[in-house]
Amino acid sequence: MKKTLLNFFLITLLSLSGKLLAQTYQLSGNPVVTTGWDLVSSAQINGDFIQLTQDVGNQYGAIKLATPINLKYCDKWKVEFDFRIDGNGTTAFGRGDGFTFWYLNNPPTGFTSGGGLGIPANANGLMVGFDIFNNTTEGQMSKVHVLYGTNNTPTGNPNIEYNNTAGSTFHSPDLNPTQPFVGATYKHVEVNGQTNMINPDNWDIIIKIDGTTIVSQTFAPSGGAIGMTTGYFGFSAATGGASARHSIKNAKIFIDKVPILNNTITPFVCVNPATGNGTVDLTTYQNQFVTNPSNYTFTYSTGGTVITNPAAFQYSGPVTINVVVKDPTSTLCDNGDGQIVLNPSPFAADDATLIGCNNDNAGVAIFDLTTANVSSVPGSTLEFFNTMFDLTNNINPIPNPTAYAAAPGKIYVRVTTPQGCTDVAEVTLNHHPVVVVNNNAILRSCFLATNPSMATFNLTVAAVTSQTGTTKTYYPSLTDAINSTNAISNALTYTAPNGVIYVKVTNAQGCYAIAKVTLEVIPPVYSTVLADKTICIEDTTTLDAGPGFNGYKWSTGATTQSITNVGVGIYWVELKTGDCIARQTVKVIPSEQPVVTNIEVSTTTVTINVMGGTPAYKYSLDNVNWQDSNVFNNVSRGDHTIYVKDAYDCDPIVIAFVVPNLVNVITPNGDGVNDIIDYSSLAGKQNLVFSIFDRYGAKIHQGDKANGYKWDGTVGGRKVPTGNYWYSVTWNENNKHNTPYKYSGWIIVKNRD
User: Fold this and answer.
1) What percent of the chain has pLDDT over 90?
2) Does the pTM of the predicted model rise above 0.70?
3) Burial class (CB in 10 A: 0-12, 13-18, 19+), 151
4) What number is the average pLDDT over the span 494-504?
5) Residues 6+ away with beta carbon under 8 Å from 319
6) Is the N end or the C end of the chain the one with fewer CB atoms within 10 Å?
7) Is the N-terminal amide bond of 38 cis, ω within 30° of 0?
8) What is the pLDDT of residues 415-432, one digit of tens each?
9) Among residues 231, 220, 186, which one has the least CA distance to residue 6?
10) For the CA atoms of the chain, what is the radius of gyration?
């Protein structure tokens, strides 16, 4: 059999939409799926296996592919299956006969007698028999027979057991002692074949049963198998006089052609008018046959002759090149279905037009001249010139054809095909209509309350163009707009101070112009007449924001220009100017009340010392009669109240004080009359202290809680000399201000020794 034998085990490669697809045949499932197979005679599906024969004499069964397979380019294949031969056998002959798998160009279609293993007489192809009946001894055995040729021996009753064609057959020893074929357990078979490296018409075949190698040799085709490229794959069994049940399952046939994308390629080619010949690199079409050409090797031939230099194939007229795609890993069969059809025709370059963008009305557009559709021939080279004179004389070619800046006009191109054919085309350069923009757009937006120097702008409403079908992109600088970098992502809510931004306006053709937009922050407008006020805590006042605003809204809920009867507190008013609203805060502050810092009493004269508030102060002992002076004379002994108010004329502060009744003369002689000075009646005052000073100002006694706020005219237990002494009494009144109080005067001490 030819090396294409691989494909008999595998899929037929079907041509669908110009592409070859691959499929592997198998017999599996429960029940076994036999789509694409034909069951012959007694063969039938029985659960997960195919039963070729029952355990009955003179049974015949086969299963074969319904469609023949062309194996011309296959150089490697593999088949696996499981078989079982069991049953009771016959009394006379025991069990028989065995089964075969094969690739035949003339497979059985009905009952076949002869051969013992169900192989038709004179069948041509590859036959692998698993024989359990020795036709010579009529005993049971387990042998493998291989025939790569014609089943025609012996004449009249052909049986591959007896075919010994040199180089085309194999007969194993009896494997019954170690590998018995008969039994209840399935045996697993692997058959591997590949093209012999020395003689490609031969196959190297390895057969294993349950992992043990039984066959490993090279087979040469003989008889009708020589030159055979198409046949059917199948299995068959027959019982004859002896009987057994023959079953197969889990058949898997591994074979794939290299899949190709196209069967036929008809590239444009031309001949050089000067020579009448053309040259083409056939290898450049490899990617039209397969997706990854580097994974494969390619052979080119024409008229049966291999092309030795496909990269520079020369032709002068129509020619068909046959292409064989080979898998160097030998995983896939070669695919020889490819053809390259060359039909030379005259070459003519096509005039073309390019339209570019006159961006920002610069007067020129940037053209990629190489995109001009001047040739449909792949691999053509293009040379561009500003004038036909330059082209004709081959001078001054355009050095930067991929980025050629030009106003509307024409340039010229020389087109050269890979086959050396040339022609000249004219390329017309035009400009798209310019994008018209307004560079005087202004956006004004109200200040932010949290940062009056900033505002939030909706950039999309800027009137930068009246043209429809454009898109706008916003940038913080002109450089960014030109380079399309750092685009503003929040164009609807762009926060910025006074300044400018730039808008790139792009039309449907990708052309653009850049517009400048000025941003103006509308500053807050506040009332110039509304100011903080100071009032008495018990009073109210009027707050007036003044005229000139579009609307007012006070924190009190009022919407008038002014609000009345406003007490001490913090207020705000929202002042509307146009669409902007400024919130202005105003305070109504309570006037600071004066504080009596201390009260000094000297005999009947009372001095009130005051700080704080707003001078001038007013003083009164009865809250009726007021005076500007803080000194009151001839104040009687006892409790009194002082009233003080400042310039705001608020409710006065009220302080209680006392003018003590002090004895001015003591005679500490023990008679019980005027013996001591006693201020214990003031002991309830805070920080009460009274002090005695001599005429030089030295303190000689201090009355406090320890001595009961008394003095008996002695110092250290000794009587002081008769004379005049000064005294002072200080304390803090029991009020919220802890008003300091000082009472001073003189006293005469008369001591008699």
Assistant:
1) 60
2) no
3) buried
4) 97
5) 302, 341, 342
6) C
7) no
8) 998 877 889 999 999 999
9) 231
10) 62
> Could you please report the per-residue DSSP string of 244-295?
-EEEEEEEEEE--BPP-S-SEE-------TTTS-EEE-GGGGHHHH-S-GGG
User: Which 3 state secondary structure label does DSSP give 651?
Assistant: coil
- Tally of CA atoms within 13 A in the half-sphere of 619 that contains its CB: 18
Peptide bond into 154 cis (omega under 30): yes
Residue type, 266: T
Predicted confidence (pLDDT) per residue in 223-276, tens digit: 999 999 888 999 999 988 888 999 999 998 777 778 889 999 998 888 877 778
pLDDT exceeds 60 at position 21: no
Task: Record the tokens describing residue 584, joined without a space.
Answer: 């202005």
Quick one: which of 83, 109, 362 has its CA closest to 249? 83
**The tokens 């924001």 sit on which residue?**
545
Give the model confidence (pLDDT) of 77-120 as tens digits.
788 999 999 988 887 778 888 999 999 999 998 888 655 688 99
Tell me the C-alpha distance between 647 and 535, whole Å. 11
Q: Answer whether 240's CB lies under 8 Å from 14's CB.
A: no
- The span from the CA of 17 to the CA of 499, in Å, is 63
Nearest to 160 by CA among 190, 202, 118, 191: 118
pLDDT digits (tens, 9 = 90+) for 628-686: 999 999 988 888 999 999 988 888 988 888 887 766 788 888 787 888 888 887 887 88
Structure tokens, 354 = 């390019």
Average pLDDT over residues 513-532: 96
Instruction: Report helix, strand or coil for 65.
Output: strand
State whether residue 598 is helix, strand or coil.
Answer: strand
Q: Which long-range contacts (CB under 8 A, 24 or more apart) does 710-717 make?
A: 710/676, 710/677, 710/678, 710/679, 710/680, 711/676, 711/677, 712/668, 712/675, 712/676, 713/666, 713/668, 713/675, 713/676, 713/749, 713/751, 714/668
CA pair distance 307, 728, nearest whole angstrom: 139
With the C-alpha atoms ordered 386, 388, 392, 393, is the resulting torsion angle positive or negative? negative
The per-residue pLDDT for 331 is 66
Give the C-alpha distances (Å, rounded to integers) separating 242 from 89, 91, 98, 158, 235: 6, 9, 10, 18, 19
Residue 408: asked if its preceding bond is cis (omega within 30°), the reply is: no
Q: Quick check: 293 and 327 in contact, CB under 8 A? A: no
Beta carbons of 206 and 106 less than 8 angstroms apart: no
CA 156/CA 162 separation, integer angstroms = 13
- Could you tell me the two tokens for 497? 């101070």
Average pLDDT, the chain: 89
Backbone conformation region of residue 725, classed left if phi is above 0, alpha if psi is from -120 to 50, else beta: beta
136 Cβ partners below 8 Å, 6+ apart? none
Kindly report the number of other CB atoms within 10 A of residue 257's CB atom: 28
Residue 310 has pLDDT above 50, yes or no: yes
pLDDT at residue 751 is higher than 60: yes
Residue 97 burial (CB count, 10 A): 30
The 8 Å CB, 24+ separation contacts for 314-322 are 314/277, 314/278, 314/279, 315/269, 315/271, 315/277, 315/278, 315/279, 315/280, 315/342, 315/344, 316/271, 316/276, 316/277, 316/278, 316/344, 317/344, 318/342, 318/343, 318/344, 321/282
* Measured distance CA(169)–CA(324) in Å, rounded: 31
- Six token digits for residue 734: 């029991």
Alpha-carbon gap, residue 516 to 521, rounded angstroms: 16
* Nearest to 226, CA basis, from 149, 147, 167, 158: 149
**Closest CA relative to residue 23, chosen from 31, 12, 34:** 12
DSSP-based three-state secondary structure for 20: strand
CA distance 344 to 642: 130
